[in-house]
């Protein structure tokens, strides 16, 4: 495996997919504030234009290129725009995502497929479009935003859960493939819990009320901090939010307990008391009025001790991890060179007569 050396953010060209609102908007702003040149993309052209204007007003550099991530040609055009505008690409951040709030039996086949096309196929499109340019530049970072629901089941989110479980598997395998080929590109999977963004306000809803997310709720800045950290230091997998980490651990270690908890409180935690007929939301088309970082939540957390520790491991842990990777790489090279050891021949058993 080639060692991955990432540039300082101030020296980077960064692409942010899904930048018109929420975490993506906050991350793009922070990259620009730190001196990176930023290419922002989403379906909402007005949202992107307002973001570029905000970045430029603060002295940063940014260009916008609208795209639907489910269409590879459009995503590839965003990657080319980074090269034509700034000459290279160093980090690709992929956040674009949609959902449908509703029980599985209420979903239409085209709704289910659309969630998969955006959340899973769209992320694959992003990685496939970015990798040739990251390799051409000598390496860089792929940062994918998945969800705690990529590791845990939750009611009213069948399509979203399916897309995020698939995404986590894709990311894990892609990371192995790149390491096996010695490609110096880090792959980070960031899995947030509930974040205060317009995601809940513009999603398609089929639950009869305005949907929401289970507490505790964190500000988008907590995830953006993790994203910027991953642009300078390979992090692997990061769950954002202590409660989300607990849910992930429970789902892996004692899934029966996690399932009971989700069944008892999961549906209620995603429902408000405000009545709402079926809301089309932004599943197939962008909606206006939500090109902001924050959503509707009043009670939020601006920091996460767990997330800070996960993104700032002690030096001894970092050193140990690098030593283990070097040892594993050396063992892999020996295995590739010599092949597996041949099986030891066993002496034939003697057969004695009576």
Q: Provide the helix percentage.
A: 40-55%
Number of strands: 13
State the name of the first-level CATH class.
Alpha Beta
Mean pLDDT: 90
With strands numbered from the N-terminus, the spatial order across the biggest sheet is: 3-2-1-4-6-7-12
Major sheet attributes: 7 strands, parallel
Cα gyration radius (Å): 22 Å
Structural class: alpha/beta
- Shape field: globular
By CATH, the architecture is named: 3-Layer(aba) Sandwich
Give the N-terminus to C-terminus distance in angstroms: 60 Å
**What is the N-to-C order of secondary-structure elements (H for helix, E for strand)?**
EHEHEHEEHEHEEHEEEHEHHEHH
What would the CATH topology be? Answer: Rossmann fold
Strand content: 15-25%
Q: Tell me the number of helical segments per DSSP (H or I, 4 or more residues long).
A: 11
The total tally of domains equals 1
Low-confidence stretches: 348-354
CATH homologous superfamily grouping: NAD(P)-binding Rossmann-like Domain
Overall description:
The protein is α/β, with parallel strands linked by helices. The chain has one domain: 3-Layer(aba) Sandwich (Rossmann fold), CATH 3.40.50. 46% of the residues lie in helices and 15% in strands. The chain has a 7-stranded parallel beta sheet, with helices on both faces. It has a two-stranded parallel ribbon with strand order 5-9. Strand 1 (13-17), helix 1 (22-33) and strand 2 form a beta-alpha-beta unit. The longest helix is centred in the middle third of the chain and has 28 residues, at 109-136. Mean pLDDT is 90; it is low at 348-354.
């Amino acid at each position: 495996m080639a060692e991955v050396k990432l540039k300082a953010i101030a020296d980077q060209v960064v692409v942010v997919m899904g930048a018109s609102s929420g975490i993506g908007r906050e991350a793009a702003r922070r990259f620009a504030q730190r001196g990176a040149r930023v290419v922002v993309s989403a379906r909402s052209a007005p949202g992107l234009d307002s973001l570029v204007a905000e970045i430029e007003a603060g002295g940063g550099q940014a260009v916008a290129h609208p795209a639907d991530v489910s269409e590879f040609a459009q995503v590839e055009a965003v990657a080319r725009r980074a090269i034509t505008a700034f000459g290279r690409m160093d980090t690709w951040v992929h956040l674009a995502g949609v959902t449908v709030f509703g029980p599985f039996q209420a979903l239409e086949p085209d709704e289910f497929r659309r969630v998969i096309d955006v959340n899973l196929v769209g992320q694959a499109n992003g990685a496939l479009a970015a990798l040739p340019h990251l390799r051409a530049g000598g390496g860089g970072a792929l940062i994918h935003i998945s969800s705690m629901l990529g590791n845990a089941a939750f009611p009213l989110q069948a399509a979203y859960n399916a897309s995020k479980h698939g995404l986590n598997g894709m990311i894990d395998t892609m990371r192995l493939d790149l390491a096996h080929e010695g490609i110096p590109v880090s792959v980070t999977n960031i899995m947030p819990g509930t974040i205060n963004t317009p995601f809940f306000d513009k999603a398609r809803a089929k639950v009869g009320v305005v949907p929401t997310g289970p507490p505790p709720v964190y500000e988008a800045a907590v995830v953006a901090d993790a994203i910027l950290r991953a642009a300078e230091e390979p992090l692997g997998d990061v769950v954002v939010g202590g409660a989300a980490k607990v849910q992930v651990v429970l789902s892996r270690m004692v899934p029966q307990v996690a399932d009971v908890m989700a069944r008892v409180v999961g549906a209620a935690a995603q429902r408000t008391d405000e009545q709402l007929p079926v809301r089309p939301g932004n599943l197939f088309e962008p909606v206006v009025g939500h090109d902001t970082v924050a959503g509707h939540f009043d009670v939020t957390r601006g920091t996460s001790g767990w997330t800070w520790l996960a993104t700032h491991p002690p030096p001894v842990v970092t050193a140990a991890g690098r030593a283990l990777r070097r040892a594993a790489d050396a063992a892999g090279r020996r295995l590739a060179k010599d092949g597996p050891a041949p099986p030891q021949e066993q002496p034939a058993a003697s057969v004695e007569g009576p």
